[in-house]
Amino acid sequence: MRPSGRELNELRPVTIEPGFTRHAEGSCLIKVGDTQVLCTATIEERVPPFIKGSGLGWVTAEYGMLPRATNTRMRREAAAGKQGGRTVEIQRLIGRALRAGVDRVALGERQITVDCDVIQADGGTRCASITGGWVALRLAVNKLMKTGEVISDPLVDPVAAVSCGIYAGQPVLDLDYPEDSEAGVDGNFIITGSGKLIEVQMSAEGSVFSRDQMNTLLDLAEKGVSELVAAQKAATA
């Protein structure tokens, strides 16, 4: 039995509230169980120097957690004077994931920055950030297309992410914190709406795993992502 009482292949309840903030070109609040992330997308008519003049667009991301997103207060990274290694790794992951679903030629020479701020954490914050980040990106691109600044839709495929793992000897979908903290195997799966893999992060946290177990977790992830993509499309319809 999972601590939450969910079935092995059951996602936590997912809600996506689009247009959550007034000023950002695209935004949403995504809730995956008790994990809550505010995602905003900002359009800028510039690109990083390394692609300037190429005609290609760029999508990047920043990630952070509020001090009381967890059960004890974390010091703000700004107060420490630098970002932690975990933060840098996660925001690079979000940026890579979102760019995989973008036609950068169609986007044109502009940059969209997706900010993902964790309000409350209960496991799966990077996955929720990617899933909600795509919604914010979709809404921002919709504005570009509405004004005619972009003619061809640069978002070629939705992008969503979900965690899977081996908990108490069983393969489970969408780990919450109690499961994540005790999982023998933990993995994050980033997949497009058409079922193409973008990135898989799997590690043995307490026990090694077999090829068959990895395949089982991938099957669970595909099921979860298909449901998350349906939620993304409903939020941006």
Automatic annotation (TrEMBL):
The keyword tRNA-binding applies. Phosphate binds at residues 86, 124-126. Keywords: Nucleotidyltransferase, RNA-binding, rRNA processing, Transferase, tRNA processing, tRNA-binding. Residues 10-140, 157-224 form the Exoribonuclease phosphorolytic domain. InterPro entries: ExoRNase_PH_dom1, ExoRNase_PH_dom2, ExoRNase_PH_dom2_sf, PNPase/RNase_PH_dom_sf, Ribosomal_Su5_D2-typ_SF, RNase_PH, RNase_PH_bac-type, RNase_PH_CS. It comes from the Bacteria. It catalyses: tRNA(n+1) + phosphate = tRNA(n) + a ribonucleoside 5'-diphosphate. Phosphorolytic 3'-5' exoribonuclease that plays an important role in tRNA 3'-end maturation. Removes nucleotide residues following the 3'-CCA terminus of tRNAs; can also add nucleotides to the ends of RNA molecules by using nucleoside diphosphates as substrates, but this may not be physiologically important. Probably plays a role in initiation of 16S rRNA degradation (leading to ribosome degradation) during starvation. HAMAP family: RNase_PH. PANTHER family: EXOSOME COMPLEX COMPONENT, EXOSOME COMPLEX COMPONENT RRP41. This is Ribonuclease PH. The gene is rph.
